[in-house]
């Protein structure tokens, strides 16, 4: 018995020192255990490698599609005879049909499979992002309706592709908006590679649509400005250097009818919303692409979800509302004067003066908010968050549009005549705009990385919410209305007085900056573009060079203002 015990224990403890005459089953068992241990220990690593390989392959797919489309669009601009706008539309229509097929397959197939969506990213697809997708998507649909109507009226000089392309665009916008409204938080766990490729193909298609919109906007504004110069010189015909100018002004002139003018003006007015829609869709789709195959543990889920409440702010809304009202007045006066053949110099002075007053206030508020963040004792949120990482990248990247244009303006103005009144105003505006973009980015990024504030008097807040819910459920008579309004006012004052001075200041600053960024988004979106009207940079850099600079930076600047509003609202809520 003892001998048998020794012979059975020997293979387990001294298997390496055994001779070749050892039983083969003992060494085989030892090898299988070692292989099983090695295999199980690398499962997580292999999943990570497979995820990186899938992201790399889908990224290469998107890169090739973007390069192909960019080559088509560039060829259309520089060699309009070989590659026409209709050729670009056909390529984009093929891409949109492929994206539609994948989106429909995802909605009807992938997302409905068992265990397809086990996790949902609570940070992805906030309500303001999804609302922006619906808002700008609706304007883009209306834009394509106007384009179809305008092309139908001028069917004798327009190709049928100009009617088919907007029709496909409407279907694509509606399907994509539905998809992004219902599935932005999905962390899909099946068909990883196919889903990544579909998302990247859709991102590439939206980027190409944005690039085409920017180039078409360039052509449209170039025609407008050249015609204005022609009127100023009292010339009989427009310059023939631009290939699209002759087509738009001679053979395809809008007839003197009300419906044609409505389609034309509506198309011009709604054009910027299409660029915004494409950029927003790209940001949401990128977060979904990062979340493919992602596993969210329980400690990543935030149980505290602050809600937006208009409490604790008084001076921020007042100052912001004043800035919005004054900005609307300046915008209306600018639009009235800018529609004439010769823009008034006083209107440009008024426009830049408004910004020179507003930008320092925004910069000072952002600097004070950053200092308050440094004085706070709230911990930094160091958890992995693809949505927040994308927000930071978009803020930094979109700010380059306005910063780049400002530096080009500074060089042009300093090299010409900076002592002139209008030139000095534009120079001051450019410097202040750079400083404001930098300070606001620091304030927003620092606020996004802070943990939400947890009130110590949580029981009182819960009791107050329960009382408010009970009040909302019962009916209020006319006699009780005055008393309830008085109670609501006292409750608002009570909640404002119980906030710490740091939270008060952060909320006031955030709300003020939200309103300021809204008016700074509205003015360039709806047609206030003094960079096209002052003529200073255009005469310094040349017509085509300055238009290329502006049409790259202006859409990014508009997107930056809109994206800053979302980031500032997040800072306001977490404060």
From TrEMBL:
GO CC terms in record: plasma membrane
Chain residue ranges for the region called Disordered: 1-25
Database matches in InterPro entries: Otopetrin (IPR004878)
Main location: membrane
Keyword line: Cell membrane, Hydrogen ion transport, Ion channel, Ion transport, Membrane, Transmembrane, Transmembrane helix, Transport
Listed Pfam families: Otopetrin (PF03189)
Bias (Basic residues): 7-17
Location in the cell: Cell membrane
Topology in membrane: Multi-pass membrane protein
Domain of life: Eukaryota
Listed transmembrane segments: 56-82, 88-108, 128-151, 163-181, 193-213, 268-289, 310-334, 354-372, 392-414, 426-448, 509-528, 540-560
GO molecular function, one term: proton channel activity
Family per similarity comment: Belongs to the otopetrin family.
PANTHER family: PROTON CHANNEL OTOP (PTHR21522), PROTON CHANNEL OTOP3 (PTHR21522:SF36)
The protein, known as: OTOP3 protein
